[in-house]
Write a structure and sequence with these properties.
The protein is mainly α. The protein has a domain at about 1-160. Helix content is about 90%, strand content about 0%. The protein is rod-shaped and about 185 Å long. Keywords: Coiled coil.
Protein backbone atom coordinates (compact mmCIF):
# COMPACT_ATOMS: atom_id res chain seq x y z
CA UNK A 1 0.00 0.00 0.00
CA UNK A 2 2.84 2.41 0.82
CA UNK A 3 4.46 1.70 -2.54
CA UNK A 4 1.16 2.33 -4.36
CA UNK A 5 0.75 5.64 -2.52
CA UNK A 6 4.32 6.61 -3.40
CA UNK A 7 3.66 5.70 -7.03
CA UNK A 8 0.47 7.79 -7.07
CA UNK A 9 2.27 10.77 -5.51
CA UNK A 10 5.10 10.44 -8.05
CA UNK A 11 2.58 10.30 -10.93
CA UNK A 12 0.71 13.33 -9.60
CA UNK A 13 3.99 15.24 -9.19
CA UNK A 14 5.00 14.32 -12.75
CA UNK A 15 1.63 15.49 -14.13
CA UNK A 16 1.87 18.75 -12.16
CA UNK A 17 5.42 19.37 -13.44
CA UNK A 18 4.24 18.75 -17.04
CA UNK A 19 1.35 21.20 -16.60
CA UNK A 20 3.69 23.81 -15.10
CA UNK A 21 6.12 23.43 -18.04
CA UNK A 22 3.31 23.87 -20.59
CA UNK A 23 1.97 26.92 -18.72
CA UNK A 24 5.43 28.51 -18.56
CA UNK A 25 5.98 27.96 -22.27
CA UNK A 26 2.64 29.49 -23.17
CA UNK A 27 3.26 32.42 -20.81
CA UNK A 28 6.71 33.01 -22.32
CA UNK A 29 5.37 32.98 -25.91
CA UNK A 30 2.50 35.31 -24.99
CA UNK A 31 4.86 37.73 -23.20
CA UNK A 32 7.25 37.92 -26.19
CA UNK A 33 4.38 38.52 -28.60
CA UNK A 34 2.96 41.22 -26.32
CA UNK A 35 6.31 43.03 -26.17
CA UNK A 36 6.70 42.91 -29.95
CA UNK A 37 3.20 44.26 -30.43
CA UNK A 38 3.82 47.08 -27.92
CA UNK A 39 7.10 48.11 -29.58
CA UNK A 40 5.55 48.13 -33.05
CA UNK A 41 2.49 50.02 -31.82
CA UNK A 42 4.59 52.66 -30.02
CA UNK A 43 6.86 53.13 -33.02
CA UNK A 44 3.91 53.56 -35.38
CA UNK A 45 2.24 55.93 -32.92
CA UNK A 46 5.37 58.08 -32.59
CA UNK A 47 5.89 58.24 -36.34
CA UNK A 48 2.27 59.20 -36.94
CA UNK A 49 2.42 61.80 -34.16
CA UNK A 50 5.63 63.31 -35.47
CA UNK A 51 4.32 63.43 -39.02
CA UNK A 52 1.19 65.17 -37.78
CA UNK A 53 3.24 67.66 -35.76
CA UNK A 54 5.50 68.36 -38.72
CA UNK A 55 2.49 68.94 -40.93
CA UNK A 56 0.88 71.27 -38.39
CA UNK A 57 4.10 73.18 -37.83
CA UNK A 58 4.66 73.48 -41.56
CA UNK A 59 1.14 74.75 -42.13
CA UNK A 60 1.57 77.23 -39.31
CA UNK A 61 4.82 78.48 -40.72
CA UNK A 62 3.33 78.73 -44.17
CA UNK A 63 0.45 80.78 -42.86
CA UNK A 64 2.87 83.10 -41.14
CA UNK A 65 4.94 83.35 -44.29
CA UNK A 66 1.86 84.07 -46.33
CA UNK A 67 0.88 86.86 -43.97
CA UNK A 68 4.36 88.29 -44.17
CA UNK A 69 4.32 88.01 -47.93
CA UNK A 70 0.99 89.78 -48.11
CA UNK A 71 2.28 92.60 -45.92
CA UNK A 72 5.66 92.98 -47.58
CA UNK A 73 5.10 91.36 -50.93
CA UNK A 74 6.37 94.21 -52.94
CA UNK A 75 9.09 95.42 -50.64
CA UNK A 76 10.67 92.27 -49.32
CA UNK A 77 9.60 89.57 -51.73
CA UNK A 78 13.07 88.26 -52.34
CA UNK A 79 14.02 88.50 -48.69
CA UNK A 80 10.83 86.71 -47.60
CA UNK A 81 11.40 83.93 -50.11
CA UNK A 82 14.97 83.52 -48.97
CA UNK A 83 13.91 83.67 -45.33
CA UNK A 84 11.18 81.12 -45.95
CA UNK A 85 13.70 78.82 -47.49
CA UNK A 86 16.06 79.18 -44.57
CA UNK A 87 13.28 78.75 -42.03
CA UNK A 88 11.89 75.79 -43.90
CA UNK A 89 15.33 74.24 -43.98
CA UNK A 90 15.75 74.98 -40.29
CA UNK A 91 12.33 73.51 -39.56
CA UNK A 92 13.21 70.40 -41.48
CA UNK A 93 16.48 70.14 -39.63
CA UNK A 94 14.74 70.62 -36.31
CA UNK A 95 12.10 68.06 -37.16
CA UNK A 96 14.80 65.72 -38.39
CA UNK A 97 16.57 66.12 -35.07
CA UNK A 98 13.35 65.53 -33.16
CA UNK A 99 12.60 62.45 -35.25
CA UNK A 100 16.13 61.15 -34.61
CA UNK A 101 15.78 61.81 -30.88
CA UNK A 102 12.41 60.06 -30.78
CA UNK A 103 13.79 57.14 -32.76
CA UNK A 104 16.79 56.86 -30.43
CA UNK A 105 14.51 57.05 -27.39
CA UNK A 106 12.14 54.49 -28.89
CA UNK A 107 15.02 52.20 -29.80
CA UNK A 108 16.54 52.56 -26.34
CA UNK A 109 13.21 51.77 -24.72
CA UNK A 110 12.64 48.85 -27.05
CA UNK A 111 16.18 47.63 -26.41
CA UNK A 112 15.61 47.82 -22.65
CA UNK A 113 12.33 45.93 -23.00
CA UNK A 114 13.96 43.32 -25.22
CA UNK A 115 16.83 42.99 -22.74
CA UNK A 116 14.33 42.53 -19.92
CA UNK A 117 12.43 40.02 -22.03
CA UNK A 118 15.70 38.20 -22.80
CA UNK A 119 16.55 38.04 -19.10
CA UNK A 120 13.05 36.81 -18.32
CA UNK A 121 13.39 34.31 -21.14
CA UNK A 122 16.69 33.07 -19.68
CA UNK A 123 15.01 32.65 -16.30
CA UNK A 124 12.14 30.78 -17.90
CA UNK A 125 14.60 28.56 -19.76
CA UNK A 126 16.38 27.75 -16.49
CA UNK A 127 13.02 27.07 -14.87
CA UNK A 128 12.08 24.78 -17.76
CA UNK A 129 15.39 22.94 -17.42
CA UNK A 130 14.78 22.52 -13.70
CA UNK A 131 11.24 21.28 -14.33
CA UNK A 132 12.54 18.86 -16.98
CA UNK A 133 15.14 17.61 -14.50
CA UNK A 134 12.48 17.15 -11.82
CA UNK A 135 10.27 15.33 -14.31
CA UNK A 136 13.13 13.02 -15.30
CA UNK A 137 13.95 12.37 -11.63
CA UNK A 138 10.29 11.64 -10.90
CA UNK A 139 10.15 9.23 -13.85
CA UNK A 140 13.30 7.45 -12.66
CA UNK A 141 11.93 7.19 -9.13
CA UNK A 142 8.63 5.87 -10.43
CA UNK A 143 10.47 3.29 -12.55
CA UNK A 144 12.58 2.27 -9.52
CA UNK A 145 9.44 1.91 -7.39
CA UNK A 146 7.83 -0.23 -10.08
CA UNK A 147 10.94 -2.45 -10.20
CA UNK A 148 10.96 -2.77 -6.39
CA UNK A 149 7.24 -3.56 -6.38
CA UNK A 150 7.74 -6.19 -9.09
CA UNK A 151 10.60 -7.77 -7.15
CA UNK A 152 8.55 -7.83 -3.95
CA UNK A 153 5.59 -9.36 -5.75
CA UNK A 154 7.91 -11.99 -7.23
CA UNK A 155 9.39 -12.77 -3.80
CA UNK A 156 5.89 -13.02 -2.32
CA UNK A 157 4.88 -15.48 -5.04
CA UNK A 158 8.04 -17.48 -4.43
CA UNK A 159 7.41 -17.52 -0.66
CA UNK A 160 3.81 -18.60 -1.19
CA UNK A 161 4.92 -21.38 -3.56
CA UNK A 162 7.59 -22.51 -1.08
CA UNK A 163 5.10 -22.47 1.81
CA UNK A 164 2.60 -24.45 -0.25
CA UNK A 165 5.28 -26.99 -1.13
CA UNK A 166 6.34 -27.30 2.51
CA UNK A 167 2.71 -27.67 3.57
CA UNK A 168 2.24 -30.48 1.05
CA UNK A 169 5.46 -32.17 2.22
CA UNK A 170 4.45 -31.86 5.88
CA UNK A 171 0.98 -33.17 5.11
CA UNK A 172 2.44 -36.13 3.22
CA UNK A 173 4.95 -36.81 6.02
CA UNK A 174 2.18 -36.58 8.63
CA UNK A 175 0.00 -39.00 6.68
CA UNK A 176 2.99 -41.34 6.29
CA UNK A 177 3.73 -41.20 10.04
CA UNK A 178 0.08 -41.77 10.90
CA UNK A 179 -0.06 -44.74 8.54
CA UNK A 180 3.17 -46.16 10.02
CA UNK A 181 1.90 -45.61 13.57
CA UNK A 182 -1.37 -47.33 12.73
CA UNK A 183 0.54 -50.24 11.21
CA UNK A 184 2.80 -50.60 14.24
CA UNK A 185 -0.18 -50.28 16.54
CA UNK A 186 -1.84 -53.20 14.77
CA UNK A 187 1.41 -55.20 14.92
CA UNK A 188 1.79 -54.54 18.65
CA UNK A 189 -1.82 -55.45 19.32
CA UNK A 190 -1.40 -58.68 17.34
CA UNK A 191 1.85 -59.55 19.14
CA UNK A 192 0.34 -58.79 22.53
CA UNK A 193 -2.61 -61.04 21.74
CA UNK A 194 -0.28 -63.83 20.60
CA UNK A 195 1.92 -63.40 23.69
CA UNK A 196 -1.03 -63.58 26.03
CA UNK A 197 -2.24 -66.76 24.34
CA UNK A 198 1.24 -68.33 24.52
CA UNK A 199 1.70 -67.41 28.18
CA UNK A 200 -1.70 -68.83 29.03
CA UNK A 201 -0.84 -72.09 27.31
CA UNK A 202 2.49 -72.34 29.17
CA UNK A 203 0.84 -71.80 32.54
CA UNK A 204 -1.69 -74.51 31.82
CA UNK A 205 1.00 -77.04 30.86
CA UNK A 206 3.41 -76.33 33.78
CA UNK A 207 3.01 -77.92 37.23
CA UNK A 208 1.24 -75.96 39.89
CA UNK A 209 4.48 -75.13 41.66
CA UNK A 210 5.89 -73.39 38.56
CA UNK A 211 2.83 -71.24 37.89
CA UNK A 212 3.22 -67.53 38.55
CA UNK A 213 1.10 -65.95 41.09
CA UNK A 214 -1.00 -62.99 40.03
CA UNK A 215 1.41 -60.49 41.63
CA UNK A 216 4.46 -62.10 39.98
CA UNK A 217 2.69 -62.11 36.59
CA UNK A 218 1.85 -58.44 36.92
CA UNK A 219 5.48 -57.70 37.82
CA UNK A 220 6.89 -59.50 34.77
CA UNK A 221 4.28 -58.25 32.28
CA UNK A 222 6.12 -54.97 31.40
CA UNK A 223 9.25 -56.96 30.63
CA UNK A 224 7.37 -59.18 28.23
CA UNK A 225 5.70 -56.22 26.53
CA UNK A 226 9.04 -54.48 26.18
CA UNK A 227 10.57 -57.50 24.52
CA UNK A 228 7.70 -57.63 22.06
CA UNK A 229 7.84 -53.89 21.15
CA UNK A 230 9.91 -53.12 17.98
CA UNK A 231 12.77 -50.67 18.39
CA UNK A 232 11.79 -48.56 15.41
CA UNK A 233 8.17 -48.01 16.42
CA UNK A 234 7.00 -44.39 16.69
CA UNK A 235 10.39 -43.01 15.66
Amino acid sequence: AAIEQEKNRAKEHLEQVTRDVDALRQQHAAELQRLRDEVEAKEAEWREKLAHEVELETQKRLEMVKEELLEERDRKLDEVIEKMGREQLLIQQQHRQRIDEVERSTRAEASAQLKSASEENAKLVETLKLKDFEAAAAEKRLAALEVINTEKQQRILEYEAELEERRKQNQALLEEKEEEAQKWKSVIQDREAVGIEERGAVLIKRPRCFRFRRAEWSMHRPVLRKTLTPRSSFN
